[in-house]
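Design a sequence for this backbone.
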């Protein structure tokens, strides 16, 4: 794995089946980590996932290592 430089799963996923966000509410912006995950499901399994991280390199590396 390449850590924060591995961007294979970074970005948006058109026609996502699900979206999860944390830290993007107007009261939270700038005060905590902000991340958005989108995923695609096929045959009851996650077939693709993308993330957008709004924060530091450590946050980006964490999201990268989880995908």
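Sequence:
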């Amino acid at each position: 794995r390449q850590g924060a430089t591995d961007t294979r799963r970074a970005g948006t996923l058109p026609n996502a089946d699900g979206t999860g966000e944390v830290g993007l509410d107007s009261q939270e912006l700038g005060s905590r980590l902000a991340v958005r995950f989108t995923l695609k499901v096929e045959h009851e399994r996650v077939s693709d996932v993308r993330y957008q991280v709004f924060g530091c390199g450590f946050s980006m590396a964490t999201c990268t290592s989880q995908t």
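The two ends are 11 Å apart (CA to CA).
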